[in-house]
Every structure is written in structure tokens, then in C-alpha cells.
Amino acid sequence: MARSDPQNHAAGGDVEASGRRQFLKRSAFASAAIGAATLPTAANAADAAANLPPNVPEWMKAQGAGFLNPPYGQPSPFEKGVVRKLPDAPAAFPSATRTPLQNLFGTITPNGLFFERHHGGVPAINPDAHRLMVHGLVDRPLLLSMNDLMRYPSVSRVHYLECSGNSAAEWFRPAGKTAQDIHGLVSCAEWTGVPLSIILDEAGVKPEGKWLLAEGADAAAMTRSVPLDKAMNDALLVYAQNGEMLRPEQGYPVRLFLPGFEGNMSIKWLRRIKVGTAPFHTREETSKYSDLMPDGSARQFTFVMDAKSVITTPSGGQKLLQQGFHEISGIAWTGSGRIRAVDVSVDGGRTWREATLQGPVQSMALTRFRLPWRWNGEPAILQSRATDETGYTQPTRSQLIAVRGQNSLYHYNAIQSWRVAAGGEVTNVHA
Amino acid sequence: MARSDPQNHAAGGDVEASGRRQFLKRSAFASAAIGAATLPTAANAADAAANLPPNVPEWMKAQGAGFLNPPYGQPSPFEKGVVRKLPDAPAAFPSATRTPLQNLFGTITPNGLFFERHHGGVPAINPDAHRLMVHGLVDRPLLLSMNDLMRYPSVSRVHYLECSGNSAAEWFRPAGKTAQDIHGLVSCAEWTGVPLSIILDEAGVKPEGKWLLAEGADAAAMTRSVPLDKAMNDALLVYAQNGEMLRPEQGYPVRLFLPGFEGNMSIKWLRRIKVGTAPFHTREETSKYSDLMPDGSARQFTFVMDAKSVITTPSGGQKLLQQGFHEISGIAWTGSGRIRAVDVSVDGGRTWREATLQGPVQSMALTRFRLPWRWNGEPAILQSRATDETGYTQPTRSQLIAVRGQNSLYHYNAIQSWRVAAGGEVTNVHA
């Protein structure tokens, strides 16, 4: 073992850990000794110096809890504040809950915290009675039970999903307080299902078939039009999420999944796919889910979600307790493939440093970025800026408004600014 | 769009989907039309042929359920059978529950279904009161609160974890019925935490320091010895699993994680790391977690878990309802890096075909494999055989016993055989 060789210390053999370690050395982090500088009490520090173990806590003195029955595990009671957030203002029928991004780590969103958006509530579907019909301009209409569908060849893919209405309040003012409030309508999971192309080939799409209508089995009969190119390229009929069957609020027992497209096109509780020649101009793609532009025209079918990022640690509502070393960490995503780079600024965009991306960087998946930072105790403005593999770079708020105006709610992807006050408080600002 | 070009249909642009499609064409799967052949009823088939949608189900006729409060989501009631399994035989204090591998998809195990193994029950730890001490042969002993620890640079890694006692009953007879019964002490998650090397550098390991003692804050004071090489290479101090803080039964608020090593070395509820010159010979690495060999000697410190795989669909306790197309699917893993290949046999090992691996294949992570198969209705013996990047290939049961004898419980990794009867029933056999 060569402990003096930094390469030997790199976790997983990639460049990330050694890069961090070089920063730590450069910044004299090692000699500053986070741990030693923050020993909780003098008595504990004396224990440590004397090489004694910490006091034996109460929970080591008696046998712990046995197994849960029913044996499906739950989070610690100490994490009871980490939940999807209902709207602050009571509503007759709230339609979305948000993921607590500021409390999460890595890239996978646990199913219990995956954001929700319903248009008619969550139907209670018996999977044995559910059917998926494929009809319209096809040679062989299909009516598939879940048993039928699940016999087909399957794939698993890690993808994010984002509501196109995510971050919408930011068009007007810094309305939300936390990353959850503002950007919590994005989450990420490992999805398993059948490539839609296989099912469409089984049905035999007629040459004049160019668009699909996808319909959900909820009370809203949620419907969207999908171009056949997308359906044949990477669309999935998904029945499992993060290893287990879909949760009810995510479309149990089967949903459409269109990687990188605005969330509500990935129709939940999917019951019907009809092949036609043209878009179907449904309710949710005419007045809603279209973008009113500055000249008064409406953009329709703005399917792809553009590159976006947000720093989650530290973020709005949190407080830096100490000067010195902090790790800035956040998530980036794009509907156009892979994230190529994330730059981070601590001075409101005057200067930027490139963050480390957690590999493997997957296409149309949340990508975790991290950057070491020494906070000197002065006010700072933290920003992150994502660039994707097409070369597209996330715009500033003024750049976005210059093109889009402020008439529409959807597809807000401007750079987020978090202000760190001298006291350490972090707040949402437009900078 | 060129719909007649198979390359255009490949999901995600990789070779997997197109490879599958070629199989489907070769095997006349497309003309056999799974869907059309299995239409649930003649009436439904007539509807489909007439291009009518399926009947409108009851759950579309009324608004669905609102949001859960507290808003932490749960599985569908129709999935209530998909749970961790307690032992069949009642025990005064059962010590393990098993993951329902046969009901899972992809590679991520949801936290609620991640296998459990406790030696003194699950302690109820207040994270604010928890401390991690680093002491022994170090220059600067540390006593870290969770706030201290979580300020350090972090990484996220997808890794499996397997109890070295997994599949132990198979040493003697085909005892278990399902993949869960037999092999359910393996699971996989995205872990986030601090590389242990950073903390050890902060403490400053003295030149004579070669081994660590890791101790848990449970009533068993679970302790294991860890070689310093491993600690400096890829060991993590993990606080998050699949995006959220660790569950109580997985070591909340912090555990050691040693990728590829036998599970109980990844000490849960970690409270103490002591650096010493030699192994500490704790209770759980002398009489337990050692391997009695045919010559009467005991192997100690058999840390690395060798390559292994199991077919999960179809698997023991399931039944094939129809002849024709089935997708064989399962999981493979190795403590020695990446899985290089998985071969599948349907004739008890006489002939083998190479399965498709779901990418990205990650080091020391579960790897999903899949192979298309047409069942002709005759009895069959299904087997999978993993090979890892070192060239090591999973042994047959007789090969394993020839080396290891049948005196010890740990590190069983032989090829699993599932017998498919003419009636479609799948059972656990030694073949």
C-alpha cells in the first residue's frame, strides 16, 4: 500500500476523489481540520485526545427494535420533516406535491418522495382488470392485460421527470423559499418497462400513422399527442420504478414514459394509444401546456425540457453555521441527452468554476455536481449553470425573459440565485 | 423517420433493443403476436378489432384519491404481498429479513425492501446525539457529530450489499422455494457519504497503523476488523441511501460501507473507528463469519464476495402460463469489480447463450441480465452463470463443494438451477 500516493486514495478509481483531495491540500483544508475545529464539547475533545471511546449511549444498553410487521420499511422518525410538500395555501383539491430536493443526496429520488401531479386524483386500479388498447391506424389492434404486457422484452433506464410548470412562480418574483418550494416538481428514478416501439411493431403502424394519442385511466382521462418519431425512438411503457411496481400516484400499473419531454406527456394509468395522422389537440395541449409569447402568439408542442440546474446544498431556508469549508452540491438535467458541464459561481455570476460531475452521467437523468468552497463569512450569491451535450447553456433570468416574455407559466429554466447573508442565512433572490 | 430501419427502434440508442428485435424476428415472435394470441376475451378482441376503446372502468367515473397526509408515499394495496420476508419458523428474535427478488425489476432495491440483518435489534438513534470517534494510532483523534461529518466532501456510488450467509441452506439441499427464500440477503442502492480516506487523512494515521476496528452503536456493539488498504481505497462513511437519509435498519444515521466485502463488515450505526497494527479478532470474525474447510482448518478474513447470479424471472414458486415467448431475467454481481458476462442455459448447463447486460454496468453493483426464450412446453432446467472482469466464473455446486466441502455456511455462490415442469411450475432443484 502506498498511502502517500493520491491515486491510491481515489474512491472508485475515478478522478473525482483525487481532484477533491488536491483541492483540500491546496486550500489547507487538511490542516484546518474540520473535525478538530468543531469538536462538540471540550469534554468530548478531551476524551478523544485521551483515546477513550465516546460515552456509551442509551441505545446500546438494551436490545433494539425487532422487525416491522408488515415488513415494508419506513424512514426514521427523526426524518419526519422530509416529505413531499403540499401547497401552503389550502385548496379544494390540490394538484401537486413537491420533492424535498434540499434534503436529498445523489440522484435517485425515493418513490415515497417522488413529486406528484394529478389532474383528477389518483385512481385505485386493480391491475388484473386494467387493459391497454392499441388501435387507430394499425394493422392489428391490441388489447393487452398486464400479464400480456409484462411478457414482452424489457429495459431499465435511469431518467428524470419534470413538470413543465416547475419553477413557474420565478417568472414574476422570488416567491418560493426552498429548493423544494421552487423546483420540487423534478425527480429521478430507475424505470423498467417495454420499449413502446416493440408494441407498435406488434400492432403494425400503417404508413400514414404519424402521431399517437395517449389516454390515462384517471377521472381526467388525461390525454396528450405524441409524435411517432419519439414513440419509436426511446418511449417506454413503464410498470416499475426503482425496482418495484409503480406507486399509485405514478401511474400504477402502467404509464407512458417519454424521456426528456415535459412531464404530463408521460401519461399515467395508461389505457389507450390511438395512432392517427396528426396531433389530436387535446385540452391539455391547447389552452394548457402551451407558451404564450411576447408577440401574443402561443407556442404549442414545446415538448423537450431544456437544460437546468439548482444548487441544493446550501439552498434557500438553510443556514451556514460556520465559516470555512463547505461542499456546494446540486443537481442538473436536460431533455437533450447528457449534461456536459456545470459551472458554479459564488459571486453572482462574475466568475465561474467548473464543478465535478458524479459519474456515470446518464442521458436524461439527474446529474449530481459538487464543488468545494471556503466561505469567508461575507455575503455571497451562489449560482449554478448547466451545459448539455448539444452545447446549450442554461440562461440567466434576463436572457430567458428577453426571449419568452412573462406571459406564460411553463418551461422556466433560468439560473437560480441563492444569497448567503453574513449571518449564514440562505435566501432565494433574483440576481 | 425510417421505421423500417431496426437501428431507429433501439431504445436509448444502444445495441440491446435492436439485438432483441432481431431475436424476435428470427423467432417469428412478431408474427406469433403475443398480444393478439392472448387477448383476454373474445368480446374484448372484437372491441379491439372494431377500433373501439376498452370499456370505461369504474375508476375513471369519479375523482380519484387526494394526497396522502403525511405525504410520504406507499405502494399500491395490490402489492401488499411484495414485502421483506420474515423467517418461516417463528424465532424468539429473528435476525434477518429477505428482499423479494422475484418481484423486483432493474437493479435498484427500494429502501423499504432492502434486506435486513441485525445482531441486537435496531437502535433508535437521535442523530443529533450520535458521535463518530476516530482514535488509536492517529495523530489527531476526532470526535465527529453528524453535522461535522456531513460537511466533508461526498460521493455517490451504486453498490450491492450481500450477507455472506446468503443462500447458505443450499450447501445441503434445495431448501428454499423462491429467489427471496434462497438468495434474498442481497440488495442494491445508490449510497452517498464521505470517503473514509478523507477522514483518516484528517486524523493522520501513524505509519504503524495497518488495520481498523469498526464498532456499531447497537446493543450487539457489532465489531469487525478492516484492513487499512481497503479503508483508504474505496470505503465510505455512508449517511444516505437511494437519495434519502439511511433507514434505521440500515444504520441510521451513519454506516461504514465496504464495496464488495461481506455485508456485516459494513458496520451499521457506526460509532467508532480505532486504528491498530493488526486484526482485532472480534467475536464476529472468529467463531462466526469464518469458513470451516474440509481439512478442519478455518479460513478467516474471507472478505471479498465472489461472482454470483440468479434468474429472478421465471424463478421458484412462479408458473409459466403459456408456451411461446418469455424473457428470462435476473441479477448478477461480484465483489471484484464489474460483471463481464452472464451466460444462461435452459438445458441444465449443456448449452449456454450469452445474456444482454443492462448498462451502465457499474463496479460492485447488481447488474440486470436478460435473454429472450421460447418455451416449447417441455421440462427445462434454467441456470445463469456470471463471469466478472477478473475472469472468475461462478462455479457449479459440485465445483464449489469440491473446494469448500460442506462444513461452513458462508460464501455460497454456486449456480442456481430452476426446474420448469411440463405444467409450467418452477421449482428449486440441484442439477
Descriptive keywords:
homodimer; 431 residues; Sulfite Oxidase, Chain A, domain 2; 3 domains; five-stranded antiparallel β-sheet; 23 strands; disordered N terminus
Distance between the ends of chain A:
49 Å
- Please work out how many helical segments of chain A DSSP would assign: 10
Q: Hey, roughly how much beta strand do the residues of chain A contain?
A: 25-35%
The major beta sheet of chain A can be summarized as: 5 strands, mixed
General form of chain A: globular
Q: Can you walk through the features of this model?
A:
The structure is a homodimer of 431-residue chains. By secondary structure, chain A is α+β, with helices and mostly antiparallel strands. Chain A has three domains: 7-47, no CATH class; 99-299, Sulfite Oxidase, Chain A, domain 2 (Alpha-Beta Complex); 308-429, Immunoglobulin-like, CATH 2.60.40.650. Chain A contains ten helices and 23 strands. Chain A has helices at 6-9, 15-26, 29-32, 34-37, 42-49, 146-151, 179-183, 196-203, 228-233, 397-404; strands spanning 96-97, 116-117, 131-136, 142-145, 155-162, 186-195, 211-216, 223-227, 236-241, 244-245, 255-257, 270-276, 291-292, 298-299, 308-313, 324-333, 339-345, 353-354, 356-357, 367-375, 380-388, 417-420, 426-429. In chain A, the strands form six sheets. Chain A has a five-stranded mixed β-sheet with strand order 4-3-12-7-8. In chain A, a hairpin with a 2-residue loop joins β9 and β10 (244-245). Residues 1-51 of chain A have low confidence and may be disordered. The interface between A and B is large, with 153 and 152 residues.
